[in-house]
Amino acid sequence: MPRFAANLTMMYNEHPFLERFGACAADGFEAVECQFPYVHGAAEIRDELDRHGLRLVLINAPAGDWAAGERGVAALPGRREEFRRGVDLAIEYATALDCPRIHLMAGIVGRGAERVAHLEAYVDNLAWAAQRLGDHGLEALIEPINPRDFPGYLLNLQAEAHAIVERIGAPNLKVQMDLYHCQVVEGDLATRIRRHFARIGHVQVAGVPHRHEPDLGEVHYPYLFELLDALGYEGWIGCEYRPRAGTSAGLGWLRALRGG
């Protein structure tokens, strides 16, 4: 059975952030991920990880002004220095917290001819970031995200993401395959997993269409979990979903997988 990491940005919102570590450990999680840990000091987070015997497996680099609707700056021309400062801050946290991978968000972009400039900025920034993260033994991730949730997001398709990874050619640059986003945009999940498996660096799940627990909706996740096992996936699966009514109460899907 795959290993599951609780996403502490979307799960356990019944608790203040630093209390979510203990709550998820009590539910049997051994690993966590979060989007933006930067409101809290790395030492505070390190204390919670150590206290509860947890591993942090993924964070995002800073993604611009989130409250104003920004969703990353990696593909925004003119924001290179901000992007680089954000990568360096993420490296500082990842190093202190023994977190092996960092997601680099592309951003909301223009259409038409402007897209070419955004793509070139994105590729240039990713090449720099992959080298920078590689110097610290870290993995860089990019993620196709559906335009229903994030209208105008640069990267929507799995094939686009893998083509960019192949173009850059950095061994530590991989694709974060969120099966929720992939189902909303493309579907045919099992075929896409098989096709792109070699460059998948992290997997995330949520129910479709409402992004709740993965036991509700149009995707039969047990089959996909078995497929990932059969393919030899050794990473973590991030549970990046919004619980329907209480995080712990909604973990019946996980208890069933564990045979509990």
What would you note in describing this structure?
The chain is of the alpha/beta class. The protein has one domain: Divalent-metal-dependent TIM barrel enzymes (TIM Barrel, Alpha-Beta Barrel). An eight-stranded parallel barrel has the order 1-2-3-4-5-6-7-8, surrounded by five helices. Helix 2 links the parallel strand 2 and strand 3. Helix 7 runs parallel beside helix 8. The chain is globular. The mean pLDDT is 96. Belongs to the hyi family. InterPro entries: HPT_OtnI_isomerases, HyI-like, Sugar_Epim/Isomerase, Xyl_isomerase-like_sf, Xyl_isomerase-like_TIM-brl. It comes from Quisquiliibacterium transsilvanicum. It holds the Pfam family AP_endonuc_2.
Short description:
This protein has 260 residues and is of the alpha/beta class.
Main features:
single chain, 260 residues, alpha/beta, TIM Barrel, 8-stranded parallel beta barrel, 8 strands, globular, Sugar_Epim/Isomerase
Strand order of the largest sheet: 1-2-3-4-5-6-7-8
How does the overall form come out from the CA principal axes?
globular
- The helix content, as a percent range, equals 25-40%
The CATH superfamily is identified as Divalent-metal-dependent TIM barrel enzymes
**What would the CATH topology be?**
TIM Barrel
- The count of domains is 1
Look at the structure and give the mean pLDDT: 96
Low-pLDDT runs = none
Summarize the SSE layout with pairings:
Elements: E1 3-7, H1 20-26, E2 31-33, H2 42-52, E3 55-60, H3 80-97, E4 101-103, H4 114-135, E5 139-142, H5 158-168, E6 173-178, H6 179-185, H7 189-196, E7 200-205, H8 221-231, E8 236-239, H9 252-258
Parallel strand pairs: 1-2, 1-8, 2-3, 3-4, 4-5, 5-6, 6-7, 7-8
